[in-house]
Amino acid sequence: MQSPDASRKVTVAVIPGDGIGTEVMDPTLRILEEVGSRHGLQFAWQHHDWSCEHYTRTGRMMPEDGLDQLAQADQILLGAVGYPGVPDHVSLWGLLIPIRRTFRQYINLRPVKLMPGIESPLRLRDGQDIDFVVVRENNEGEYSEVGGRMYRGTPEEFAVQESVFTRRGVERAARYALELADSRGGGLASATKSNGIVHTMPFWDQVVHETAKDFPGVHVRDYHIDALSALFVLDPGRFDVVVASNLFGDILTDLGAAIIGSIGIAPSGNLNPEGEFPSMFEPVHGSAPDIAGQGIANPLGQIWAASMMLDHLGHERAGAEVLAAVEATLVAGVKTPDLGGTATTTEVADAVLAHLTT
Amino acid sequence: MQSPDASRKVTVAVIPGDGIGTEVMDPTLRILEEVGSRHGLQFAWQHHDWSCEHYTRTGRMMPEDGLDQLAQADQILLGAVGYPGVPDHVSLWGLLIPIRRTFRQYINLRPVKLMPGIESPLRLRDGQDIDFVVVRENNEGEYSEVGGRMYRGTPEEFAVQESVFTRRGVERAARYALELADSRGGGLASATKSNGIVHTMPFWDQVVHETAKDFPGVHVRDYHIDALSALFVLDPGRFDVVVASNLFGDILTDLGAAIIGSIGIAPSGNLNPEGEFPSMFEPVHGSAPDIAGQGIANPLGQIWAASMMLDHLGHERAGAEVLAAVEATLVAGVKTPDLGGTATTTEVADAVLAHLTT
Ligand SMILES: CC(C)[C@H](C(=O)O)[C@@H](O)C(=O)O
Ligand SMILES: CC(C)[C@H](C(=O)O)[C@@H](O)C(=O)O
C-alpha cells in the first residue's frame, strides 16, 4: 500500500488485451476518472495494444522492451489475454507470467464476497454470508519453470514438473495473509496437503506457523486442499482469510468465484506489496471469445479490479465508493446476461457511473 | 471386473482401521453376507486389526509381511485409518499408499451421485441431476516419492516435489475412463492445466487424446482444473465421466462428495482392473475421531463401497440391490446426524438390511 500523493498524476499502464478485455476496459477508465476527480487523483493512461492479436501481427505478445515500459508505470490494469489459435503458453509466458514474476507481484489477492443483488448457487443457511479473501502465492510453487519430458514419442515417455517452495517465498505470502487476518480479525485458513504425500506442503505448514508466531492474535488453522474445497461449498461462512500456494489458490479462487455467483464479477490484484514495482489489477475472467464483440460482457470484474487498485494506491475511500456503486447497480438489477439480466456492458458501466455521481 | 465363480468363497481382507472405521465395518459385513446368500456368493473374511492403534502398540501400521498376507485375498475392504498423535505420513505410507501402489490399484473410481432423499447444498435447476463418475489416476502424478528439502533451518531453505507422469500411467487411466464413458454414453471430461504453466499437463492431454482415437464414439473435452472446480458448482449436470490426475482427482472427489450433500456416504474403489491383484474398497470419509465411539457414524459410505466391490466381482445385480436398499433407506428418512437425521449407525444398517430382504 502506498500513501497518496496528490501532487502528481498516477501513471497507469493499460493493457486491454483480447476479446472482452477490450470491451470492459474503456468504461472502467471512465469510472476511474470520475472517482479520481472527486478525490484529487489524476491519472495518466499509457495504452498498450499488447495481446494475441499483437502476437499474430508481430510474433510477440509485447515488444522486446515491454517490461521496461511497464516498469515506468505506477500500476498496471490488465483486461484479459487469450485467443483461439494462439497457444496458451505463448500468451501466458509472453505477457502475464513475466509481469507477475519480474515485478515480484508475489501476492494474488482475490476477494470472495457475495454481492447484494446476486444469488449464490449455494443454498446458504439463514444469516450465512460469504465474505472472505484468498491470498494466493503468485510467483513460485507448483508453477515453476523446472520440468520437461524424456523419451518423446516412445512408450517410455514421461513428463516431470517440479514444485519449488522457498522459505522466502512462503514466508512473505504468509506474512501478508497474517497481517490481513490480523486486521480483519477472523482468523487464517491455510490450504495444505501435508499428510506426507506431497513433500513441499509440510514445509509450507512449518513456515506458515513459524511466521504466525509474530501474530499471536491470529488463529491459524490448516485445511487439506481436498477438504477445503468441499468446505467452500458446505460452509463458506466460516472463512475470513485463506492463504494458499499458487496452484491451490488458482483452484480455490475459481471455486470462490463460482460460489459468489459469477466469474464475470470476481477481481484480482497481483500485488508487489512493497511498491518497488507496479502491481497489476485484472478481472478473474478470461477473454471469452464466445461472447466477444456482442457488447454484453460484464464490466464489473474489471471495475472491481480498478477499485482494488485504488485501495492499493492508498485511496481506500475512492475504492470503497466504486465498490458501493457496483453494489447499488446490482441491487437495482442492472445486470449483464451472465447474471441473468439483459443489460449491455455500457448500460452497466453507465449505471455504476450514475451511482458514483449521486 | 472379474467373472463370478460360484464354486468357491471370495476371500476378503477386512481392515476396519481406526475411529469410525471400526464402527461402520461390521454392519457392512452383515449386509454383504445377506446379499451374498441370495446370489450364491460366499465370503471368507480375513480380519486385520492394522491401524494407528496397532502402530502405537507395535511400531508398525501392519506387520512386515502385511502386503504378502493381503496378496492372498481376492479383495480388500478398508474402513479408515488415522488417529490424533500418529502423524499422517506414518499412517498413510505405512498402509494406504503401499496397498494402492503394490497392488497396482491405478484407478480410483468415485461415483458422484445425488441420492434420492438427500438435498444437495447446491440450488439445482429443475430437472438437473448429479450423476457422474470420477476416474482418478491413483498411482503416480503429483503424489510421487521424489522430492525433499535443502538448507534446512536456514533462510535459504527450500522444498521441492516432483510430479511424475508416465505414458503408461496416463494411458491406462485414460483407457479405463474412455471405456466407462463409452458404456455410459455421456462423454469424457479431462481435468488439466495445460496452458504451458505446468509441464506435465500438456503431456497428459496428448496421451488422453491419443488414447481416445480408439474410442471414436466418445466426445472428450479438456477443462482446466480451476474452471472445472467452478463447474462442479455451477453446472454439475453436464458431467458423465471425469478423468483426472492423482491430486486433481483428490480435490475433485471431495468437492464431488460435497455437492452430493455428504462426505459420509461417498464411496471409493481402488481398482486393479486386470484382477492380477486385489482391489480395495473404502469410504471417502476418514476415521473422524471427533465422533468416534458415539455410534452415530454414517455406515452408508462403507456400504456403498461394498456395493462397488460386488460390481467389481462381476456381481452387478447384487451390487445394484445393495445400492437400491441404500436409496430406500434414505428415502425413508433413516439418516445419521451428518445427514440431518437422528438414527444411529446400527439403525441405518438395519434399515438397509430390511430393505434388502423385502
Ligand atoms: C491463465 C492462468 C495461467 C492463470 C493462472 O493459473 O494463474 C489464471 O487461471 C489465473 O487464475 O489468473
Ligand atoms: C488420505 C489421503 C492420502 C488420501 C489421498 O489424498 O489420496 C485421501 O484424501 C483420499 O482421497 O483417499
From TrEMBL, chains A, B:
Pfam families recorded: Iso_dh
Residues annotated as domain Isopropylmalate dehydrogenase-like: 11-352
Xref: InterPro entries: ICDH/IPMDH, IsoCit/isopropylmalate_DH_CS, IsoPropMal-DH-like_dom, TTC_DH
Keyword Methyltransferase: no
Entry keyword set: Manganese, Metal-binding, NAD, Oxidoreductase
Domain of life: Bacteria
SMART domains on file: Iso_dh (SM01329)
Record flagged with keyword Oxidoreductase: yes
Catalysis: reaction(s): (R)-malate + NAD(+) = pyruvate + CO2 + NADH
Family: Belongs to the isocitrate and isopropylmalate dehydrogenases family.
UniProt-recorded name of the protein: D-malate dehydrogenase (decarboxylating)
Gene: ttuC
